[in-house]
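Dear colleague,

Following up on Tuesday's group meeting, I ran the structure prediction for the two-component complex that the binding team flagged. I've pasted the input sequences exactly as they went in, so you can double-check that nothing got truncated or mislabelled along the way. The structure tokens for the whole assembly follow below. Feel free to forward this to whoever is handling the docking comparison.

Inputs:
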Amino acid sequence: MAEPLPSALKPIVASSEDLPTESPDGVDLTLIQWTLSLTPLERLELLQDWVDGLAELRLGRVAER
Amino acid sequence: MAASPSVRFLGLLRVLLRHGVELCVVGGVAAQLAGAPILTLDLDVLFDRTPENLDRLLAALRELKARYRDPAGRHIEPDLDKLQTLRLHLLLTDLGALDVLGVIGGGLTYQDLVHRTVVYELGELRVRVLELAAVIETKEQANRDKDRAVLPVLRQTLAMMNRGERGEGG
């Protein structure tokens, strides 16, 4: 029998009065709620931050070699 | 292979729009602008294929020092003939990866889709962007693995927008 999941990994089950945090197919709805709360320019700046962050990680990996 | 510059979304749009290119943003950036948390490493634009617009687009691409992303490492620059005859142009520029598309989805052109776009004000830029429902439809039509992979997030975003949880304009 499988070990029960640690509580940190268990899906957060909201009460019936709260909005669900995850869709049945596993989409993180809280992340969508957050990006929907931003302006279009803020969303694009967020995307640029993600891209820049990835580039920094790649540079870091190359430097260590 | 030398490291390529990471994409600068606003920088690319600034150059294209300064040259007066008639285009709409599609793909991952269009989805992100609508509120879908999608990571993409390039800017996809669908351009109007009129002769005048091809000239404007070519001028913008020359300013960006655009060249095709060629697995063999050859340096091939877009020209008017290629812009007229090829359906898509996967380019690398001084401001990162730019995909310039003449058709998307099941063969839809800029004229087919322009009535399904919204205009966002991004700083000083006014940018035409494919609306999220149309982004979803074109990805369903393209039906590649990478398109199917993001559809759940896009659909949930659209559903939340339609329930009034903001979106499109913020």
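The longest helix of chain A spans residues 40-64.

Cheers,
M.
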